């Protein structure tokens, strides 16, 4: 979906840059820093940078490139369609897609050299695609060690291995990897991680006895990469951490040596003085406690800000104010207090909902608390209506490149076309 700046015969060539009206600013230097930090923690294991869901809302193509520049060896996505979009952008790094349906395009994945996660039911379909393409498929066998989502059950593991090895002997596929996913690694005190690790070691032993010689065995996510070196094996899959967010309750990004990469910001679109008792937004759940100045912030739940997050912080002119009243589809309100005519000076000022927090400003974690969710959701849900402004691109990305024309270029979110 595209939100053009103008329509019809009108031109915005001489107008202001819409990226500065509202945008999610993506700092690729922060992505590179975080990948290097996680690579140091994982060494000697390799790093897979997980760029599913449009790189957690940050832009899959620029983030993938930055992660590879910083030392990631692999990329990971959920859907085959996400993998094909990266290939179409010219990214040829090792790439795994692991969440499929009966309509997933396995033939296109095989043709594009995309590795395919296989929980069992997909195997015959993958082999059919390999026959059709006259090219062996590369698969990673997934086992469910306790999370209860996709992956072969422990009881079905022997059968899956046997069938996969038969097809490998026929030259139809190559078992490239074996993997599983941890359920509670973000809660280091819980025993289930040890239980899953033990189960994973057992299935690896069974695979070795069956003659499987994978390139990579991978289990660790971001929290396990940072806290459980015994789960690293040959490769770690890091998602949240490369975006600079902490997976641990009670530990900040800074304490983990990570830098948040997304800043969500806009401009104050109205300031007005109101009397004591002025109601604010739908339902009038908030009323001013005296004469006050209300500032309108033009972002709402259509932009991905949680409607439930009343009280979420917004920073304007060096001060942080909570959102008052209900968050609406397109806008929200903050109460600046009884500042009188000085409020007029804040019209057009930058309003930051979350960012790095380096200046004491709000973070995605703060909004997660206000919404009763986690930081993953806060950044991932920012909608395509909010342009992504990418900064600190590699000098190699210049005019005529698939990523854009220069640092600060708009990178469309998934499903968008460049206007």
TrEMBL record:
Residues 391-419 are annotated as: Disordered. The keyword Transport does not apply. The modification N6-(pyridoxal phosphate)lysine is found at residue 52. Residues 261-391 form the Alanine racemase C-terminal domain. It catalyses: L-alanine = D-alanine. Its cofactor is pyridoxal 5'-phosphate. Its EC number is 5.1.1.1. Pathway: Amino-acid biosynthesis; D-alanine biosynthesis; D-alanine from L-alanine: step 1/1. GO terms for cellular component: cytosol. It is an enzyme of class 5 (isomerase). GO terms for biological process: D-alanine biosynthetic process; peptidoglycan biosynthetic process. The active site is at 52 (proton acceptor), 282 (proton acceptor). It comes from the Bacteria. Belongs to the alanine racemase family. This is Alanine racemase. The lineage of its organism: Bacteria, Bacillati, Actinomycetota, Actinomycetes, Micrococcales.
